[in-house]
Amino acid sequence: MPRLASVDGVITPADEARIPVTDHGLLRGDGVFEVVRLYGGRPFAVDDHLARMALSAENLRLPFDGAALRADLDALLAASDGGDGNVRLVVTRGGRRLVIAEPMTSQPASIAVGLVEHAPVRTLDGIKSLSYASNMLASRLAQERGFDEAVLTTPHGRLLEGPTQSFFYVLGGELCTPPLSDHVLDSITRRRVLEVVAVRERPTSREEVERFEEAFLASTTREVVPIHRIEQHELPGGGARTAQAARALRERIEAELAGT
Ligand SMILES: Cc1ncc(COP(=O)(O)O)c(C=O)c1O
């Protein structure tokens, strides 16, 4: 079965879905998006994603019809084969509603990350906008230096998050993550991890990296991804605290899916 996409509620094979080239979502990255994980065809935390998307749209002064997008999503899922994967939701300045089925993100058992300086535009704070070129570039810059992925830092060296993942680290036996006041995304996975294991919200910087005992990235598409190296600092790549967080998150996901 081909991958499917919906444009304003019209479902076609994803390769055949089209929007006008004049859409400022394409020309200027002016629009909002979310990526929802599908477990056996069932969307996880879809209400949270739609709520965050509505907030992104409001902050971007973008018209947003959440009910129509939800109906598009339900129709696409009904027409799909019910497997594991992701679904991308997009609303553009040109007024297009897109729902695109995507395959599972492939993932190694653990990754090496490089630190990449990043100065996000403050006016886009808290907006999951289509202007993600800087995040995508950060991954490429880290890969050019031989790492699997980037961890973004401020120009002053504070560690923030991955280009599309939240960042967690263990210091002095305590699981920590940068606070939202450091202008990291209010990630839906991050929220869940904070609910299921003890986590201290605490800023951190380049200087502390050599004292980290464990670290991982977390996101909708990948859940928990253990880190085995940050720059030159070697880590266990899945220590006890990382394994505990991964297990507790998975249990929480299964419990939520069973309740829906
Ligand atoms: C910058 C950034 N941080 C963190 C995340 C993880 O967020 P979530 O758990 O909601 O997928 C994402 C997801 O795309 C992101 O773009």
Structure description:
Helix content is 28%, strand content 28%. The protein has 260 residues and is of the alpha+beta class. Strands 7, 8, 9, 10, 11, 12, 13 and 14 form an eight-stranded mixed β-sheet that branches. A six-stranded antiparallel β-sheet has the order 2-1-6-5-3-4. Helix 5 crosses helix 6. The two termini are 26 Å apart. The structure holds pyridoxal-5'-phosphate (PLP). Pyridoxal-5'-phosphate binds at residues 161, 164-166, 185, 187-190, 219-220.
Query: Using only CA atoms, what is the Rg?
Result: 18 Å
Bound molecules: pyridoxal-5'-phosphate
Terminal CA distance reads: 26 Å
Shape field: globular
* Category from helices, strands and their pairing: alpha+beta
Detail the poorly predicted runs: none
Strand content: 25-35%
If you average the pLDDT, what whole number results? Answer: 96
Q: Helix count, per DSSP?
A: 6
Task: Give me the strand/helix succession.
Answer: EEHEEHHEEEHEEEHEEEEH
| Biggest sheet record | 8 strands, mixed
Percent of residues in helices comes to 25-40%
Number of strand segments: 14
Structural topology:
Elements: E1 4-7, E2 10-13, H1 24-28, E3 31-39, E4 42-43, H2 46-59, H3 66-79, E5 85-92, E6 97-102, E7 111-117, H4 133-144, E8 149-153, E9 166-171, E10 174-177, H5 188-196, E11 200-201, E12 214-219, E13 223-230, E14 233-234, H6 240-258
Parallel strand pairs: 7-8, 7-13, 10-11
Antiparallel strand pairs: 1-2, 1-6, 3-4, 3-5, 5-6, 9-10, 9-12, 12-13, 13-14
Helix pairs in contact: 5-6
The structure holds pyridoxal-5'-phosphate.
Quick recap:
It is built from six helices and 14 strands. It has helices spanning 24-28, 46-59, 66-79, 133-144, 188-196, 240-258, and strands spanning 4-7, 10-13, 31-39, 42-43, 85-92, 97-102, 111-117, 149-153, 166-171, 174-177, 200-201, 214-219, 223-230, 233-234.
